[in-house]
Amino acid sequence: MPDFQHSALIIVDVQNDFLPHGALAVPKGDEIIAQVNALSHLGFGAVIATQDWHPANHCSFAPQGGPWPEHCVAASSGADFPKSLDLSPISHIIHKGMAQNRDSYSAFFDNDHVTSTGLNTLLSGLSINHVVICGLALDFCVAATAEDAMRCGFRTDIALEACRGINADQSALLQKLRSNGITLSD
Questions:
Q1: Residue 96 known to be catalytic
Q2: What confidence category does residue 162 fall into, taking pLDDT thresholds of 50, 70 and 90?
Q3: Catalytically annotated residue among 103, 141, 148, 163
């Protein structure tokens, strides 16, 4: 059982565009919402949600040569949290991927691994030393957030039951995360 006072739950990118019928749907992404809601009510010292918050014509969008369809444009309905996500326990929201010319998979840093979202400073200011991460997509933003959390010195767990990935086979990724010291729980 974690020391909840010094632990934070990080809910990564549970947004309409990543759910079924969204612009960049994660298969069965909607299936995690009940578990995310349950986790968020466990009494964590902080519950932090992230949102992809892209400008129009973001570099990650296919029309600009990026790998992804247009998704999570700032203040759009696709960038919104779904109505089924209980927002009441959320104490902080981190917007990421806001720079036109670089993406941000991690909740901690843009993909340049230099530009901070401010999450590390926020968690340190709240005396958090342990994070539990859940959300979408396991093989991109959740994994990048967990790896950066470890680099920033936080004890890091991923709640697998509250994650879904884009790729069907996650075995190599899970092995890599374990080998990096990240605890995976069901």
A1: yes
A2: very high
A3: 141
